[in-house]
Amino acid sequence: MINIHKKTLQDLEFETVLEQVSEYCVTHLGNQKALQIEPFNNKEALLSALQLTNEYVSSFYNDNRIPNHGFDAITKELQLLRIENTYLETHSLKKIVSISLTANDIVKFLNKFEDYYPSLKQFASRIEVTTVIIEKIDSVVDRFGDVKDNASALLFELRQSMNKLKGKINSSFTSALNQYHNLEYLDDIRESVVENKRVLAVKAMYRRKVKGAIMGGSKTGSIVYIEPEATLQHTRELNNLEYEESEEVVRILKEVTNFLRDFLPLIEAYQVFLTNIDVIAAKAKYAKSMNAILPEISEDRHIFLRDAYHPLLYLTNVEKKEKTYPQTIELNNDKRIIVISGPNAGGKSITLKTVGLLQLMLQSGMLIPVHERSKVTIFDRVLTDIGDNQSIENHLSTYSYRLKQMNYFLKKVNKNTLFLIDEFGTGSDPELGGALAETFLEEFYGRNAFGIITTHYANLKMLANEKDEMINANMMFDERTLEPMYKLALGQAGSSFTFEVAQKNGIPYSLINRAKKKIERSKVRFDATIAKLQKQRAKLEKTSESLKVNERKKQSEADKLEEINNKIQKKLESYQELYDSNQRLIYLGQKVNDISEKFFKDKRKRELMAELFRLVQIENSKRKKVSAKQAKAEKAKEAKIKQEAEKKVEVIRKKKKEAKKKAVVQEKPKPVLKVGDRVRMHDGRAVGSIDTLEKGKATVNYGIFTTNVNVDLLELVEAVKK
Q1: DSSP H/E element including 451
Q2: Distance between CA 30 and CA 25 in Å, rounded?
Q3: Is residue 459 scored above 90 in pLDDT?
Q4: Does residue 191 belong to any structural domain of this protein?
Q5: What pLDDT score was predicted for residue 529?
Q6: Which of 152, 203, 403, 442 has its CA 20 to 30 A from that of 391?
Q7: Residue 608 counted as domain residue
């Protein structure tokens, strides 16, 4: 059974967290419920609540956003439904329709996306999805909030009669208006409205000549408002019908209300369900605002809060655009009590409060701002003694009050307890208070409790050093500036830096020296040793951090070099393949050129064909049979390599061209080509002879075939002999 005292909630400012959560609620009932959140007293209910909040947070980061859950409270409507012979007005019925639709939409959505939100789906499974309530109200009330004409046969008949009467009233009034206007009995405004009825604006001097009921007059008395006699009878009939209509409307509303009474538990469940969803959504939005998560929940009493932030401090600093320093704290069965020491203003108390507040939030179904590798455990009790504990009401001193607290602790502390005590043992004589505090701490230790305390007492630091399952810790300070670093260092007690801080704040050295002489020399030496060790630890911490950074840099550089080496190796292999392929093609080209030259000389076609066929057979014998898919892949790979190579060749060519432009080289005059000259293309190897020359074009004969080429693209190999 989990039971957390109200004083613990006050000490850790849990109410402020609830106020911040409640601001994310979209309904008044949700807001009120959020302010009443308390730690769960049942572990199963707590784990379920944590899972609900965690699933709702996940909805912010996927495409399946949970539908809107806003609603108007129906608390008054529910009260009326519990009272016999009462009925709900149309606006109340519309509110019930709205809340039914909202609840149904959410339940249907969660059923549809059960894979995403299994816990929320299970939570909503108690709500019945039904359209009976909606259909019943919609059959009676229209979208404007009026009872429909066809809600009953009698109402339809009454409204038909009323409409006819209104027509008669208008026609009879128009007739009277025209009649008396022609007689010039009416004022310039002619007509007005009194008590929702059209009346004639009659000049006061003619009021006796106009038949009808006087309904009033103007402030000056110059106009008398008269309802014409012709309309009076129809108006009386209309009044009777309106009374009957209102009675019929009440009867219909009573019938609908009686129908809804059978669904009272379901309608109540709708409001409770949507209120709970509002609170879950508010917790989720609050978690998102500080990047909070659901850490692993350990069953073996292991707390590991990595990069833990104090929620209130974090959100305040976000608003101020200031940095918040996270803490990393670990408690387990081997190290279950931490004794934090060191100077004031170093962050000891905030570290203590961070652990306590995160524990309360977690045990109230909220996510906490820690690293995802963190671990938490659930305690039956969280006991705190933090802040100024002087009790004015009970006329108790700080020390008396703290002793009462320790007495309460002694009754409650056990292996399932987390205790958090700030400035343990203060308020009395340092020697006596320290001795008593040490005794209490030994008792808590003996009961296998988990806890964190802050202290300046040397004997408590010594005790933590002697006990196996207790550990010293200190808030680190810069050894030169004595400025706090807001970082908890486990394993070593902290010096109070009493004399160092005094010297830094301008206290004369002679006074500090006198103070040192007044206290036990051994105590000064002990504190000085701790201070020295703390400074050395800070230096080692910086050196270690620097070495880690350098190691990470070296590893990163090595990884990059390895990656570059692999890429170069792959490119070299690809270019080697391309080179081999091109060499083979060059060899084939040379072979074909030799055969064509031989044919050019002897003109023997049969031998030419035989040579070519033999060459093709030799090449085909080297080829391997591959599937169309493999061939396509090979071609694609080869094309990619060629493309890369061509890009690089293009760059080289550009550089060469630029170099040629820079170097002033006298070009040789181009020779004048004639028919019969042996020539070749600038980029080619095949040699042919010019058959004809015409308008800058040459017909070149290669033996097997002829081609037309621009003269500028040809270079002279051998001039024709004259």
Answers
A1: strand 450-454
A2: 6
A3: no
A4: yes
A5: 64
A6: 442
A7: yes
Backbone CA torsion sign across 46, 49, 55, 59:
negative
Find the domain containing 566 and state its range. Answer: 554-649
Same domain, 371 and 457: yes
End-to-end CA distance of the chain: 121
Q: Assess whether 591 and 558 both reside in one domain.
A: yes
How many folded domains does the chain comprise? 5
Q: Is residue 482 part of a domain?
A: yes
**370 near 355, Cβ under 8 Å?**
no
Does residue 482 have a pLDDT over 80? Answer: no
CB 360 within 8 A of CB 382: yes
In a domain, 499, yes or no: no
CA distance 512 to 499: 7
Q: Please check whether residues 579 and 709 belong to one and the same domain.
A: no
Q: Could you tell me which residue, 650 or 170, shows the higher pLDDT?
A: 170
CB 669 within 8 A of CB 662: no
Asked if 690 contacts 699 with a C-beta cutoff of 8 angstroms, the reply is yes
**Euclidean distance between CA atoms 326 and 344, whole angstroms:** 18
- Shared-domain flag, residues 308 and 438: yes
Residues 301, 276 contacting (CB under 8 angstroms): no
Say what percent of the chain tops pLDDT 90.
Answer: 40
Q: Let me know how long the chain is.
A: 722
What is the rounded CA–CA span in Å between residue 327 and residue 304? 11
- Rounded distance between C-alpha atoms, residue 635 and residue 581, angstroms: 12
Residues 281 and 422 in one domain: no
CA distances from 455 to 190, 428, 485 (A): 93, 14, 18
Which of 9, 12, 2 is closest to 379 using CA atoms? 2
Q: How far is CA 47 from the centre of its chain?
A: 22
CA 56, 59, 60, 61 torsion: positive or negative? Answer: positive
Closest by Cα among 689, 686, 666, 659 to 677: 689
Q: Is the distance from CB of 176 to CB of 230 less than 8 angstroms? A: yes
Tell me which residue has tokens 């006074």. Answer: 511
316 and 285 in one domain? no
Q: What are phi and psi of 678, to 5 degrees?
A: -90, 125
What are the CA-CA distances from residue 106 to residues 8, 56, 67, 123, 374 (Å)? Answer: 37, 12, 6, 11, 33
